[in-house]
Specification:
This protein has 3 helices and 4 strands, in the order E-H-E-H-E-E-H.
């Protein structure tokens, strides 16, 4: 199972990012776990300075914008 963490304050872009990951995983028939991390200390601990950030299996894979559907698909396939 893939474990995603969406880092951010809970803004619209952060919610959209989580929704896109959930939708793409469902479309692909893959079970994923999505955790929203809103604690700024925890976010800074990942070295993310602009949100939304995405952590996949404890590695930062994206930050600063909403990822594309193609990018999310590649994360899920990896």
């Amino acid at each position: 199972m893939k474990n995603f963490k969406v880092l951010g304050s809970g803004c619209k872009k952060c919610a959209t990012t989580a929704d896109l990951i959930r939708a793409k995983a469902a479309e692909m028939g893959v079970v994923v776990e999505i955790e929203k991390v809103t604690d700024m200390g925890a976010i800074m601990g990942y070295g993310v300075m602009s949100t939304p950030g995405v952590v996949l299996n404890d590695a930062v894979v994206h930050s600063g914008s909403v990822p594309t559907a193609n990018t999310i698909e590649e994360w899920i396939k990896s």
